[in-house]
């Protein structure tokens, strides 16, 4: 499995699956979640509403992952996960590890060969980018990743990109 780090907008990536740093409601929010909903179009919200009407009546728990189609996105699928919110006292690294691990498990079960991740929990949810990067790289490296050829981290600015690149270099 190759791991790449790039600066950019995750909604523009032509990969099999992009991961959304969603919230438990699954009904959209700010940050990367809002950008993904805008780029995917209204069908994404409809698909998320259908999840809420079915197996996810109580929303998606922190650390869990669920997939929808990507609709108008270049990506075929969106894997929605919920990172821990540091501002709500969710500071257990195991929760963030679970978000990355369960998203990868979902990518494997979808048959995705390429997956793009944002810096889950590093925005509104208040985790330090360096902590997110370390957990993300470690979790992905130890995942069997069956069938996944490429994992990319798509970061919104160069400062966060540098943090992820050093986490990647540190583990070499
Ligand atoms: P969380 O609530 O999990 O912290 P946010 O969306 O607030 O999620 O932030 C997660 C990260 O995603 C932040 O580093 C933010 O700068 C970044 N981000 C925001 N929009 C995009 C985008 N279009 N593509 C990639 N990353 C993005």
Note down, in words, how this protein is organized.
By secondary structure, this protein is of the alpha/beta class. The protein contains 5 helices and 6 strands. A hairpin with a 7-residue loop joins β3 and β4. Adenosine-5'-diphosphate (ADP) binds next to α1.
Question: SSE layout and pairings?
Answer:
Layout (H helix, E strand, L loop, with lengths): L1 E6 L9 E6 L8 H10 L1 H12 L11 E5 L7 E6 L10 H18 L3 E4 L11 H14 L7 E6 L2 H13 L2
Parallel strand pairs: 1-6, 2-4, 2-5, 5-6
Antiparallel strand pairs: 3-4
Helix pairs in contact: 3-4, 4-5
Bound molecules: adenosine-5'-diphosphate.
Adenosine-5'-diphosphate binds next to helix 1.
- Tertiary shape: globular
Beta-strand residue fraction:
15-25%
Helical proportion?
25-40%
SSE-based structural type = alpha/beta
**What's the helix-strand series?**
EEHHEEHEHEH
Radius of gyration: 14 Å
Mean pLDDT: 97
Pick out the low-confidence regions: none
Number of strands: 6
Number of H/I helices: 5
Largest sheet: 6 strands, mixed
Spatial strand arrangement across the major sheet: 1-6-5-2-4-3
Intertermini distance: 14 Å
Task: Write out the distinct hetero groups bound to the structure.
Answer: adenosine-5'-diphosphate
């Amino acid at each position: 499995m190759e791991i790449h780090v790039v600066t950019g907008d995750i909604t523009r990536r032509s990969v099999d699956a992009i991961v959304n740093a969603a919230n438990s409601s699954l009904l959209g929010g700010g940050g990367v979640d809002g950008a993904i909903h805008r780029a995917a179009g209204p069908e994404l919200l409809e698909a998320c509403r259908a999840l809420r009407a079915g197996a996810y009546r109580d929303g998606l728990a922190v650390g869990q992952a669920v997939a929808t189609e990507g609709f108008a996105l270049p990506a075929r699928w969106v894997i929605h996960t919920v990172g821990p919110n540091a501002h709500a006292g969710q500071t257990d690294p195991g929760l963030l590890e679970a978000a990355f691990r369960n998203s990868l498990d979902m990518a494997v079960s979808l048959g995705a060969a390429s997956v793009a991740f944002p810096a889950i929990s590093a925005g509104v949810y208040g985790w330090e980018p360096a902590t997110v990067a370390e957990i993300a790289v470690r979790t992905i490296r130890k995942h069997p990743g069956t069938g996944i050829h490429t994992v990319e981290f798509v970061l919104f600015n160069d400062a966060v990109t540098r943090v992820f690149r050093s986490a990647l270099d540190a583990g070499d």
